[in-house]
Amino acid sequence: MYNEKDSMPTTFDHPMTTADNLTSAKNCSMCCKHFQPSFFMDVDECGHIVCKVCMYDWNNKTENPTCPVCKSSISERQLHKIRSCIQHTDDHIDDACYEKIYQSSGGILVRRVNGTLYYLAIQQRRYNGDLQWVSPKGQIEGNESSLEAAQREISEEVGLKSMTLIDFISKQCFSFRESGKLYKKTIFWYLFDVDQPSELVLNEEEGFIMSKWLTYKESIGTFSHQSFIEIIKVVDSIVNKS
């Protein structure tokens, strides 16, 4: 039965700044919260600085996107940047139609060696014996934020605890049927930089059997799920512009 507690959040979770990095943070012109600069978008037409949360929430359903602050029109290029932050399927289905809504969070781990960016891929043996190449991910537990869940899953699945958050990348929504019932799954993805990767400790109990660092081209040909490969493409465009 549908449980109201399982309903999806209406906004993104964003990593807030800490006392250590507050000097480099900005205030969103809309919600006035402090975020790191990478979480902002400068509106081309009017120059207002707005966080990705407010930009997406304001323009999610409209056909004529505008700046949330002054309502100035937004270019198609700017609109594409907003919508590249999120992937949706089955938005037309009301949440009450789902038997249950699952929420997960994961991390895309990268490191740069001699100017080349590498992505961490881990191989997992599923319950049916199939092998798949994935990135650390798991269900959000208790009162965790999606960021906290991503960090915990990375620690539990590959043993990494020292990493630097780069950006919030995407929120994906999928629906699927099982035993005739409809379910929904939401996945939050965060990008992390691993400056000094220690030896990975894979969680064998969860079926993880090996890992490797891959170039962008190798990643596209290795990761098992096309939806995740599309996110890797977004990540590549972000890191190559930074």
Automatic annotation (TrEMBL):
Signal peptide start-end: none
Gene3D superfamilies noted in UniProt: Nucleoside Triphosphate Pyrophosphohydrolase, Zinc/RING finger domain, C3HC4 (zinc finger)
Swiss-Prot/TrEMBL GO biological process terms: AMP biosynthetic process; ATP biosynthetic process
SUPFAM superfamilies: Nudix (SSF55811), RING/U-box (SSF57850)
Originating organism: Araneus ventricosus
Protein name: Nudix hydrolase domain-containing protein
Matching PROSITE patterns: NUDIX, NUDIX_BOX, ZF_RING_1, ZF_RING_2
RING-type domain: residues covered: 28-71
Gene Ontology MF terms: bis(5'-nucleosyl)-tetraphosphatase (asymmetrical) activity; zinc ion binding
DNA repair recorded as keyword: no
Keyword Zinc-finger found: yes
Keywords: Hydrolase, Metal-binding, Zinc, Zinc-finger
Superkingdom, taxonomy of origin: Eukaryota
Pfam family for this entry, one: zf-C3HC4
Domain Nudix hydrolase: 100-236
InterPro entries attached to this UniProt entry: NUDIX_hydrolase-like_dom_sf, NUDIX_hydrolase_CS, NUDIX_hydrolase_dom, Nudix_hydrolase_domain, Znf_C3HC4_RING-type, Znf_RING, Znf_RING/FYVE/PHD, Znf_RING_CS
